[in-house]
Amino acid sequence: MKSKEIMDTIKMVSEQKLDIRTITMGISLFDCIDSDGKKARQKIYDKLTSSAKDLVKVANQIEREYGIPIVNKRISVTPISMIAAASDDKDYVAYAKTMDQAAKAVGVDLIGGFTSLVQKGFQKGDHTLIKSLPEALTETSRVCGSVNIGSTKAGINLDAVKTMGSTIKKIENIDPVSCMNLVVFCNAVEDNPFMAGAFHGVSEADKIINVGISGPGVVKRALEKVKGQSIDVVSETIKKTAFKVTRMGQFVGNITSKRLGVPFGIVDLSLAPTPYPGDSVAEILEEIGLDSVGAPGTTAALALLNDAVKKGGIMACEHVGGLSGAFIPVSEDEGMIRAANNGNLRIEKLEAMTAVCSVGLDMIAVPGDTSADSISGMIADEAGIGMINNKTTAVRVIPAKGKKVGDTIEFGGIFGSAPVMPINTKSPSRFIQRGGHIPAPIHSFKN
């Protein structure tokens, strides 16, 4: 970083809520595989605690030295369904507890990778992991899980879609808040540093450092300076701002990598909001010219924002990956919460918006009496958008047990609170219960 860049960064941190949302160490567990589950779990604990023992210390040093807030320190691991399948264990809850214990031992906030990849079908470990999800996520405090049920190349596993709807309902019956630790993907990526969907992909190095940046407040402040100017100026302003934010992410990633002796992977240049004032993607869209997020024109404005962020970020860093775009989680964005409470933002509009931004229906609370098949229908819709558009989409939905539309469910901290949103009450059951496999689209056959 040059001196001017450092001064710009200091200003963005102090005045515009810029932060590093996460430093995530990815760790391969393939060398921990053992037919004896107890031995495998001991190997996992030993590798995690030895590999990440200095992660939090180094991140805290960088915060103090450079004045750059690093909100979360995290670990992602190889999908546990692959690691545990070598054993004869009847459930994988003990693996989740081992991950949780290791995360606590090294002081990280979250650990991801209680994961299964079933876009084309189930293997032994996949069935066992998915069956274990309700107990695994409700009996641990830092473990996050994910299941990939579709892809552009493979199509959509409708049997898995059906299973995940009922799995989410089972988690709700134990502890609805734990639903926020589970995400269902189409086209999941291997180098995502953000939770709940982070896992360490099979093509990654043994250990890697990935960085997730933030910065909605920085973008909004930049746009305040170009009020009334053409949309071309808006796009150029966002690109230039994203360039600066991404350079900071690369700077922090390189320093972390060097100090830990772990290769630097990618910067995920997603705009990740928080529920705190001034740190909202919704407010960026309103600064572009909408009375409220959800108004006609919202999807177009979000498409502009997402594209400009990517263009600016790719110019700033040669290693961009993960999800990289604008997140629109309802509970984690003050502007989204306000729009949902005012009735200006509904799930159908959010679904349209997910076609042009990162991920999908994220951190959305629905009435507690929402059926498993209706949740599966939401998952299928998002997977359809991802599959056809060759992009990552996902659903992280929280059925709010005992609550109805207009009520609120509290998560705390950067996870905020979610207003319970109405959903279409017509049933998709006959569609979901068919099961089987939705074929890959024609444009997937590129070889």
TrEMBL record:
InterPro entries per UniProt:
UPF0210
Q: Do you know which SUPFAM superfamilies this protein is assigned to?
A: PFL-like glycyl radical enzymes
**Pfam assignment, any one:** DUF711
Where are the coiled-coil regions? Answer: none
Q: How does it assemble?
A: Homodimer.
Say which family it is in.
Belongs to the UPF0210 family.
**PANTHER family noted in UniProt:** UPF0210 PROTEIN MJ1665, UPF0210 PROTEIN SPR0218
Name of the protein in question: UPF0210 protein WR164_02360
* Native species: Philodulcilactobacillus myokoensis
State the organism's lineage.
Bacteria, Bacillati, Bacillota, Bacilli, Lactobacillales
